Amino acid sequence: MSLRAFSYGGGVQSTAALVLAARGEIDFPLFIFANVGEKAEHPDSLAYVRDVAVPYAQKHGIELVTVHATYKGQPVDLYDRVESGVGDSTSVHIPVFQSRTGAPSSRRCTYDHKIRPIYRELRRRGASRTEPAIVGLGISLDEIHRARRSSSPEMFQEHEYPLIDLQMRRSECLSLIADEGLPEPGKSSCWFCPFHSRTTWQRLMRDRPDLFDKAAELEQRMNESRNLAGEDLVWLTRNRVPLREAVGPEQMELDMEGGCESGWCLT
């Protein structure tokens, strides 16, 4: 029988899937959380996984394991990788927006810190080309454009989308979580992700000004180094201006009612 595992991100959709598995409505006895790093992952997401998801999974006989990107056997934090590559145009790692084109740069963050660590865990547990693992992804019906059935052959996995199969939207996932008596998870992502919507940046500025300032300082250091090297400047928002200008207090009332973009990671 093929290994069945769910890629758990700590957000609304994957937590709803955890509830469904606990209720026996979907068949995923294993959930895998790819932690991008204690410095990079939003602290609220880490707290939710640790204090809510893990005890809940244990209570219902579900195995929830955490995996990391590693180098020479040691966990690698994405924030450390971004910091170490501040002055190196080939080592940005995250999809920063380029001044000249406005397009996001190539990124390694999702593959290196989400997809590959889960792949390694699947391989460790016996997934192979002849018997690929069945991997559930937390994409709801309102995000159906993100779904794809196939994966790279070398990843030894096939994707399933139980929330789409059950015709569940994000709002229904929230209702399910509340009905189970669990607190609502926050949006799962790195706190400095360039794919944040303006609303998400504004919430970070309002609720975690320490992390917002840290993101603005990271962007500034990147551009100081790149300016000295004569390289194209890069930005954490599509506005292609410094973060504090792109997400200013004067925009709060205008934008806080807007919707939030879906995450770009597979989890």
Quick summary:
The chain is an alpha/beta fold and 267 residues long. The protein has helices at residues 12-22, 43-59, 78-84, 109-124, 162-165, 170-179, 198-207, 209-228, 243-246, 252-255; strands spanning 4-8, 30-34, 63-67, 70-71, 74-75, 97-98, 133-137, 157-160, 234-235.
Description:
With 267 residues, the protein is of the alpha/beta class. It is 39% helix and 12% strand. The protein contains ten helices and nine strands. A five-stranded parallel sheet has the order 3-2-1-7-8, sandwiched between helices. Strands 4-5 form a two-stranded antiparallel ribbon. Strands 6-9 form a two-stranded antiparallel sheet. β2, α2 and β3 form a beta-alpha-beta unit. α7 packs across α8. The longest helix is centred in the C-terminal third of the chain and has 20 residues. It starts with a strand and ends in a 12-residue tail after the last helix.
How large a portion of the residues is in β-strands, by DSSP E? 5-15%
Rg over C-alpha atoms, rounded to the nearest angstrom = 19 Å
Number of helices: 10
In total, how many beta strands?
Answer: 9
What's the overall average pLDDT, rounded?
88
Distance between the termini: 24 Å
Structural class: alpha/beta
Please trace the helix and strand order, writing H or E for each element: EHEHEEEHEHEEHHHHEHH
Relative helix content: 25-40%
The low-confidence runs, each spanning 5 or more residues with pLDDT under 50, are: 250-264
Oligomer: single chain
Largest sheet: 5 strands, parallel
Strand order of the largest sheet: 3-2-1-7-8
Inertia-based shape: globular
